Automatic annotation (TrEMBL), chain A:
Keywords for the protein's UniProt record, in alphabetical order: Cell membrane, Membrane, Transmembrane, Transmembrane helix, Transport
Top-level taxonomic group: Bacteria
UniProt key word ATP-binding: no
Cell location: Cell membrane
Protein name as it appears in the record: Oligopeptide ABC transporter permease OppB
Membrane topology: Multi-pass membrane protein
Residue intervals of the ABC transmembrane type-1 domain: 94-297
Similarity comment: Belongs to the binding-protein-dependent transport system permease family. OppBC subfamily.
TrEMBL record, chain B:
Residue span, ABC transmembrane type-1 domain: 106-295
Species per Swiss-Prot/TrEMBL record: Cobetia amphilecti
Keywords annotated in UniProt: Cell inner membrane, Cell membrane, Membrane, Peptide transport, Protein transport, Transmembrane, Transmembrane helix, Transport
Residue span of region Disordered: 1-29
Membrane-topology descriptor: Multi-pass membrane protein
Principal location class: membrane
Protein name: Oligopeptide transport system permease protein OppC
InterPro entries: BP-dependent_transpt_permease, MetI-like, MetI-like_sf, OppC_N
Subcellular location: Cell inner membrane; Cell membrane
Pfam families (alphabetical): BPD_transp_1 (PF00528), OppC_N (PF12911)
Family statement drawn from the similarity comment of this UniProt entry: Belongs to the binding-protein-dependent transport system permease family. OppBC subfamily.
The keyword Transport is annotated on this UniProt entry: yes
Length: 308, 307, 575
C-alpha cells in the first residue's frame, strides 16, 4: 500500500509537468499581454515592467525559470494584484473554496446515496419514479442556471437567505452555493447508486444472505450497500473535478472569495502567474484526491490489493 | 462401423434446393426488438417528440418569427412576454426579440452538440477499437495515455484554450470533442475486448474471414448499442459544456448567440427581466431532459435486464 | 411454533449409535421444541398442489403446475428435471425467496406448519436455521467483500446467538468438518482466495452451522469439475449421516442421483411426472420421459480406424503459453497452458480429449487450428501449417472447421441464421451467386435436421440444441474434412445432448469426417471417440484406444476421473 502510494505520487509528477507545460505555453502564445490595460503604458515603463517580471527573456528561459521557482514553492508575483504573490492569493482564497467544495461533496454523498438506495429498493414504485425524475431534472438543469434562480428566489424575492457574499462562511451564506454546486452530483450519484444497488440485489450472494434468514434491511446494510457503493466511490474522482470546475462559476455568482474567480479573471487579464498558479494548484489537488479515492476503493474491495 | 471412404458432401455440388429454395419468413432482429421496447417506453417517446419539436423550431423557427436576430424594436425594450407586439417571449434590454434569439441560440448550441459529439465519436471509436482489437502492449500504452488525459484538469485547459484562441466556434467544436472522446474510447475498448473473446468472433476467424470483415460484420454491429446510448448521453453533456463556456463569456461572439450566452445575459437582468433568464433556461433544460430520458430509454431497450 | 409432540420418548426414535454431537443436537432441538418425531408422525416436509405463476407484463407464465411430494426426516429426495422443468422454482418457493412477481398457491408444510401463510418474521427464523440452502454458483454465492469466517459466524449469531470467540471456535469446527485445509488460516480468507470447490465447502459450512432439518442443495456440484463433484457429494452424504438432516437435492443429472438419493421425483414443464424409490425408478420407470432420461446416457462406441489410415493432422511438441499481467504494475507472469503435446489424427478417426477445467484441452484445440499463437510443429494433410500466415491459412480453413461449446455465444446475435451459415461461403466460394449460396445454406440446414424455412430468423429465436445444430451447419457448409468439436454438448440438456451426438455420428458416417472431440464428460467421449487422450495441467496423462483405457486405465488420475464420473463412491449407503 505504502509503496503503491509512493509510486502513484511519483507518477503524478510527469502528469503535473504536462499540465504546467501545456498551460504555460498556451498562455504565452495568446495574443495580448498582462500590461495592455485601458490606457497604454509608455514604452519605457512597459519595458521596465517586462524586465522586472523576466518577460523579456526568451520563452524557454522563462519556462525553466518558472519551473525552478515552482520547485522551491514559489508561484511568482501576480501581475494584476500588484502587491500580492500568487501563493498568498491562493492561500487566502483556498479556505473558502475548500469549505464550499467539502460541503458540496458531502451533500452529494449523504443525499445521493440514500436516494439511490431507496429508489432501488422501491424499484418501479412511485417513490422510484419521483426520485429518478427529480434526479434527471437535477442533471438537466445546469448549476449556472440553478445558482441565479436560487439567489433570485431565496435571496431576492423571499429574502430568507443572503443572495451572495461570504460573511466568513456562515451557514446562511453557504447554503445556496452548496445546493447549487452539489445538485448535479447528487443527481448523478443517486442514479448510479440505484443502478448498482439493483445489480447487487440481484446477485447470488444476496440470495445467500436472504437464505440465511437475515432481515431485508440487514441484507441491504450488511451485504448490499458496500459492494453497491464501489462504482460511486470510483465516480468520486470525476465528481470532485466537476465540483471544482463548477465552483469557478458558483464563486462568481455568489461573490465568494475563493480561488475559482481568480482563474477566469486571471485568464482574461493575461495574469500569467495567477492562471498558472491556479492550474498547478488545482491539478495537484485533483491528482491527490484521485489517489485518495483509489486507496479508499482498495480498502472497500478486498479483491483489489495494491501490494505487489 | 468401419471406415467409409471419404465421400464428398451432398451430391457433387448439386443442391436439393437448386432453383427454388423454400420461402423463409423474416425473423425478429434484435434491433426490431429494441425498437419495439423503446416504443413502449412512454417517457422516451415523449422525449423524442419534444426533442423533434425543439430541433425543428430551432431550424426553421427563426424564419417564421416576425423579427430578425439583431433587429431592435425601439417600442419594446426589455418588455415582458406580450402577444400583441409579437414578442411572445418578450425582448431583451436592447429590444431584440427573445424567441428569435433563443431559437438562433438553439441552432448554435445544437450544432456544437452535434459536431462535437461527432468529433468525440470518431476519435473515441477509432481509438477504443484499435486499442481493444490489438490488445496487449498497444492497448496498455494507449490506455495509459487515456489515464493521464483523465487526470488532467481538463476544464481549465479548455478555458485556457478559449482564452488564447479567442471565441471561435470551430475551436469550441474541437475543444469539446477533444475532451469528450475519452469516455467513448473506454466504452468502445471495453466492448471490443469483451466481443473479441466471444466464440462467434473466434468462429469467424476459423472460417477464414478477413480481419476487416470481422470488424465490420461482427464487432461493430454488436458494439453499436452501447455506443448509441453513450452518444445520446454525450449530446446533453456537450450542450452543457458549451453553455458553461458561453456563460463564462468564452463562447460564441456577437452577433451569434447561444443558450449559454443568453442565460448569462439573463442572469444579470433577472431582477428586472426574469424572462430573459427563464426562456433560454427552459429551452436548455427541456433539451437536456429529453436527451437524458431518451438515452435512458435506449439503454433499457437495448439491454432490458437493467430496468 | 410447531405443535409436534416433543415427549421425552424422542430419544428412543433415534438410532442407537449416537455420539456426543448427536446428543447435543437432540438437546438443542428439544429446547427449541423441534425435536425429531416418533415414527408414524407426519413427514418432515409436505408439499401439496404447489403452483407458481410468474406475473409478467404480457400475462402469467406458469412455472410450477400443481406439484405434490413429501420428504421424510433424514431422507434424500432428488428433484430431477431438465432446464425449464420448474425444479429450482419449487425449491426456492419452499424458502419463499422467489421474486415478488411470482404468485405461489398450494401448501408447503414443514412439520405441519404451513410456510406459505407463515409471517415473514417466522420465515426468517426458519431460513438458514431449520432450512438451509446450498446453491449452484459457488463462485458468486459468497459475499466477495466479507471474510469467510464472518459469513459463517453471521448465521450463528443470528440463529444461535453465538458471538465472539465461541462463534469463531464453532466456525473453525465447521470449516474442519467440511474439509477445508488449514481452517485456522482460511477462516480469515476472502472468497476470491479460495477455489470453486472450497467455496462450495464454505457454503455447506454456512448451511450446516445451525444443524438444519432440511438442506436444499440446488445443483450444488454442477459448476464443479468431476473429481471435485464426487468429493462434495461424499461430504454431503457423510454430513447427512452425522446430522440426520433431510436433503432435497435438485439436479439435472440422473447419474448422480442413482448413487445419492433415496427417492426420486422427475419433473418436466412444471409438472411432477413420477415419484418413487430411486432403485424402482431406475429399474422400472413408469413414464416414457423418465425412461428417456435414463437412457439419455449416451450409448455405443466407435470402432477404431484401420491402422494404415492416412494421417490428416499431426502435431509435435505443441506448446502454448500466456503472459498473465498482474494487476497494476506487477511483474508479468508466463503461464504455460499446453506443455509439449504430440498428436496424430487419422482420417475417419475421432480422438477424444478429456480433462478438467484448466487442463489446457481447449487451448490445445485452438492451437491446432492456428487460432492461437503456439510453438511446435503442426501439419495438416502433409502441409506444415506453422509457417503460414493468415492468408496462407485461409484456403485450408474450409477443410478444418470448429464447433464451440456455448450455443449462445457462438452465433453472432445480429446476423440471421442464413447469413451466419453463408459467411464461410462468401470467403471460400466467392463465385457463388446469391441464389446458389441460399441453396447451399438450405442444404446445410436440412443436413442438421433444421427447417430451411427458418434461415431468415435470428439466433435468439432458437433453443440451445437448435443453435448448436446451426453452429454445426455453419461448419458443414464448407464441406470440411476435419472438425474440432470443443465441448459441443456440454451446455445442453441430456435429452438434447443425445440427439446432437447422434447427429454428429451420422454426419461422420455420411461424409467420412475426422473429429477431434474435446470434453470433460467421459460418458460422451466414450460413446463418440475411438482414441482417447487424458490431459491434466497442459500435459498428456494417458492416451490410447478408448476401449482399452475405459477397460483398464493405467494412470491413477484417469481412474479417479472415471470413478468420479461413473461410480461416485459415496461411502456407505445411507439408512
Amino acid at each position: 500500500m505504502l509503496s503503491y502510494t509512493l509510486k502513484r505520487l511519483l507518477q503524478a509528477i510527469p502528469t503535473l509537468l504536462i499540465v504546467i507545460t501545456l498551460s504555460f505555453f498556451l498562455m504565452r502564445v495568446a495574443p495580448g499581454g498582462p500590461f495592455d490595460g485601458e490606457r497604454r503604458l509608455p514604452p519605457e515603463i512597459e519595458q521596465n515592467l517586462r524586465a522586472a517580471y523576466h518577460l523579456d527573456e526568451p520563452l524557454p528561459m522563462q519556462y525553466l525559470r518558472y519551473l525552478g521557482d515552482l520547485v522551491q514553492g514559489d508561484l511568482g508575483p501576480s501581475f494584476k494584484y500588484k502587491d500580492f504573490d500568487v501563493s498568498e492569493l491562493i492561500s487566502q482564497g483556498f479556505p473558502a473554496s475548500l469549505e464550499l467544495g467539502m460541503w458540496a461533496i458531502l451533500a452529494a454523498l449523504l443525499i445521493g446515496v440514500p436516494l439511490g438506495v431507496i429508489a432501488a429498493i422501491r424499484r418501479n414504485s412511485t417513490a422510484d419514479y419521483v426520485v429518478m425524475s427529480t434526479a434527471l431534472a437535477g442533471i438537466a438543469v445546469p448549476n449556472f442556471v440553478i445558482a441565479p434562480l436560487l439567489a433570485l428566489v431565496f435571496g431576492v424575492l423571499l429574502g430568507w437567505l443572503p443572495a451572495g457574499g461570504w460573511n466568513g462562511g456562515a451557514w446562511q451564506n453557504l447554503l445556496l452555493p452548496v445546493v447549487a454546486l452539489s445538485i448535479q452530483q447528487i443527481a448523478y450519484i443517486a442514479r448510479m447508486m440505484r443502478a448498482s444497488m439493483i445489480e447487487v440485489l440481484g446477485s447470488h450472494y444476496i440470495r445467500t444472505a436472504r437464505a440465511k434468514g437475515l432481515s431485508e434491511w440487514k441484507v441491504i446494510l450488511r451485504h448490499a450497500l458496500r459492494p453497491a457503493m464501489l462504482p460511486v466511490v470510483s465516480y468520486l474522482g470525476p465528481a470532485i473535478a466537476g465540483i471544482i470546475t463548477g465552483s469557478v462559476v458558483i464563486e462568481q455568482i455568489f461573490g465568494i472569495p475563493g480561488i475559482g474567480r481568480y482563474f477566469v479573471q486571471g485568464a482574461l487579464n493575461r495574469d500569467y502567474t495567477l492562471v498558472m498558479g491556479t492550474v498547478v494548484f488545482y491539478g495537484a489537488l485533483i491528482l491527490l484526491l484521485n489517489l485518495i479515492v483509489d486507496l479508499l476503493y482498495s480498502m472497500l474491495d478486498p479483491q483489489i490489493r495494491y501490494d505487489d | 462401423m468401419s471406415q467409409t471412404t471419404p465421400a464428398p458432401h451432398g451430391t457433387g455440388g448439386a443442391s436439393a434446393f437448386d432453383g427454388q429454395p423454400p420461402a423463409a419468413p423474416a425473423g425478429d432482429s434484435l434491433t426490431r426488438d429494441a425498437w419495439r421496447r423503446l416504443k413502449q417506453n412512454r417517457a422516451a417517446m415523449c422525449s423524442l417528440v419534444v426533442m423533434a419539436v425543439i430541433v425543428l423550431a430551432c431550424l426553421i423557427g427563426p424564419w417564421l418569427t416576425p423579427f430578425e436576430l439583431d433587429e431592435v424594436d425601439w417600442n419594446a425594450i426589455g418588455t415582458g412576454p406580450d402577444l400583441a407586439s409579437g414578442h411572445v417571449f418578450g425582448t431583451d434590454v436592447n429590444g431584440r426579440d427573445l424567441l428569435t434569439r433563443t431559437l438562433h441560440g438553439g441552432q448554435i448550441s445544437l450544432s456544437v452538440a452535434l459536431v462535437a459529439t461527432f468529433v468525440s465519436l470518431v476519435i473515441g471509436v477509432l481509438y477504443g477499437a484499435v486499442s481493444g482489437y490489438f490488445g496487449g502492449r498497444t492497448d496498455n500504452l494507449m490506455m495509459r495515455f487515456v489515464d493521464i488525459m483523465y487526470s488532467l484538469p481538463f476544464m481549465f485547459l479548455v478555458i485556457l484554450l478559449m482564452v488564447v484562441f479567442g471565441r471561435n466556434i470551430f475551436l469550441i467544436y474541437a475543444a469539446i470533442g477533444a475532451v469528450e472522446w475519452l469516455d467513448m474510447s473506454r466504452i468502445v475498448r471495453g466492448q471490443v475486448l469483451a466481443l473479441k473473446k466471444r466464440e462467434f468472433v473466434e468462429a469467424a476467424h476459423a472460417l477464414g474471414v478477413r480481419d476487416l470483415q470481422v470488424v465490420t460484420r461482427h464487432l461493430i454491429p454488436n458494439a453499436l448499442g452501447p455506443v448509441i446510448v453513450y452518444v445520446t448521453l454525450t449530446v446533453p453533456k456537450v450542450i452543457l459544456l458549451e453553455s458553461f463556456l458561453s456563460f463564462l463569456g468564452l463562447g460564441v461572439q456577437e452577433p451569434l448567440t447561444s443558450w449559454g450566452v443568453l442565460i448569462s445575459e439573463g442572469k444579470d437582468m433577472m431582477e428586472t427581466a426574469p424572462w430573459m433568464l427563464l426562456v433560454p433556461s427552459a429551452f436548455l433544460a427541456a433539451t437536456l431532459f429529453c436527451l437524458n430520458f431518451l438515452g435512458d430509454g435506449l439503454r433499457d431497450a437495448l439491454d432490458p435486464k437493467t430496468r | 411454533m410447531t405443535s409436534s409432540p416433543s415427549t421425552s420418548g424422542t430419544s428412543s426414535s433415534l438410532p442407537p449409535a449416537r455420539n456426543a454431537a448427536d446428543q447435543a443436537r437432540a438437546d438443542t432441538l428439544t429446547r427449541l421444541g423441534l425435536a425429531a418425531e416418533a415414527p408414524g408422525t407426519p413427514p418432515l416436509m409436505e408439499i401439496n398442489d404447489l403452483k407458481v405463476d410468474f406475473q409478467l407484463p404480457d400475462g402469467a407464465v406458469p412455472a410450477v403446475k400443481g406439484v405434490s411430494f413429501t420428504l421424510n426426516k433424514g431422507e434424500t429426495l432428488a428433484l430431477v428435471g431438465e432446464s425449464g422443468s420448474g425444479k429450482s422454482v419449487t425449491s426456492t418457493a419452499i424458502l419463499r425467496l422467489l421474486p415478488e412477481l411470482a404468485e405461489i398457491k398450494g401448501a408447503i408444510r414443514l412439520r405441519g406448519e404451513d410456510l406459505l401463510s407463515a409471517s415473514t418474521r417466522r420465515m426468517r427464523e426458519l431460513r438458514g436455521n431449520r432450512i438451509a440452502t446450498v446453491f449452484q454458483e459457488p463462485m458468486t454465492s459468497l459475499n466477495p467483500l466479507h471474510r469467510i469466517g464472518r459469513q459463517i459466524i453471521e448465521v450463528l449469531a443470528l440463529h444461535r446467538d453465538l458471538k465472539g470467540r465461541a462463534a469463531r471456535h464453532k466456525a473453525l469446527e465447521l470449516l474442519e468438518q467440511v474439509g477445508i485445509p488449514e481452517p485456522a488460516r482460511r477462516i480469515d480468507s476472502y472468497p476470491h482466495e479460495l477455489s470453486g470447490g472450497q467455496r462450495q465447502r464454505v457454503m455447506i459450512a454456512i448451511a450446516l452451522a445451525c444443524e438444519p432439518d432440511l438442506l436444499i442443495a440446488d445443483e450444488p456440484t454442477t459448476a464443479l469439475d468431476v473429481t471435485v463433484q464426487a468429493q462434495i457429494l461424499r461430504l454431503l452424504k457423510s454430513l447427512q449421516q452425522r446430522y440426520g438432516m433431510a436433503i432435497l437435492f435438485i439436479t439435472h443429472d440422473l447419474s448422480i442421483v442413482r448413487h445419492f438419493a433415496d427417492r426420486v421425483c422427475v419433473m418436466r414443464h412444471g409438472e411432477l411426472l413420477e415419484t418413487g424409490a430411486t432403485h424402482d425408478v431406475f429399474e422400472s420407470p413408469q413414464h416414457a420421459y423418465t425412461r428417456m432420461l435414463i437412457d439419455a446416457e449416451p450409448a455405443g462406441e466407435k470402432a477404431p480406424v484401420a491402422a494404415d489410415a492416412p494421417v490428416l493432422l499431426s502435431a509435435r511438441d505443441v506448446r502454448v503459453s500466456f503472459t498473465i499481467k498482474r494487476p497494476l504494475f506487477g511483474p508479468k507472469v508466463a503461464f504455460e497452458a499446453v506443455r509439449g503435446i504430440d498428436l496424430e489424427v487419422r482420417r475417419g478417426q475421432t480422438i477424444g480429449i478429456v480433462g478438467e477445467s484448466g487442463s489446457g484441452k481447449s487451448t490445445l484445440g485452438r492451437a491446432l487450428l492456428r487460432l492461437l499463437k503456439s510453438q511446435g510443429q503442426i501439419s495438416f494433410d502433409g502441409v506444415d501449417i506453422m509457417p503460414l500466415d493468415k492468408s496462407g491459412m485461409r484456403p485450408l480453413r474450409s477443410r478444418m472447421q470448429v464447433v464451440f461449446q456455448d450455443p449462445f455465444g457462438s452465433l453472432s446475435p445480429r446476423l440471421t441464421v442464413g447469413e451466419i451459415i453463408s459467411e464461410g461461403l462468401r470467403v471460400h466460394h466467392p463465385e457463388l451467386n446469391r441464389a446458389q449460396r441460399d441453396a447451399r445454406v438450405c442444404d446445410a440446414l436440412s443436413e442438421v435436421s433444421l427447417d430451411p424455412g427458418m434461415r431468415n430468423r435470428y439466433p435468439h429465436e432458437f433453443s440451445g440444441g437448435q443453435r448448436q445444430r446451426i453452429a454445426i451447419a455453419r461448419a458443414l457448409v464448407l464441406k470440411p474434412e476435419f472438425l474440432l468439436l470443443d465441448e459441443p454438448t456440454s451446455a445442453l440438456d441430456r435429452s438434447v445432448q443425445v440427439t446432437v451426438i447422434d447427429l454428429l455420428r451420422d454426419l461422420q458416417a455420411r461424409h467420412g469426417l475426422t473429429y477431434l472431440f474435446i470434453s470433460h464428460d467421459l460418458a460422451v467421449v466414450r460413446a463418440l471417440s475411438d482414441h482417447l487422450i487424458v490431459m491434466k495441467e497442459g500435459e498428456v496423462v494417458e492416451s490410447g484406444s478408448t476401449h482399452a483405457i475405459f477397460e483398464a486405465p493405467r494412470e491413477r488420475y484417469t481412474r479417479e476421473l472415471m470413478q468420479a464420473a461413473f461410480a461416485p463412491d459415496l461411502g456407505q449407503t445411507h439408512h
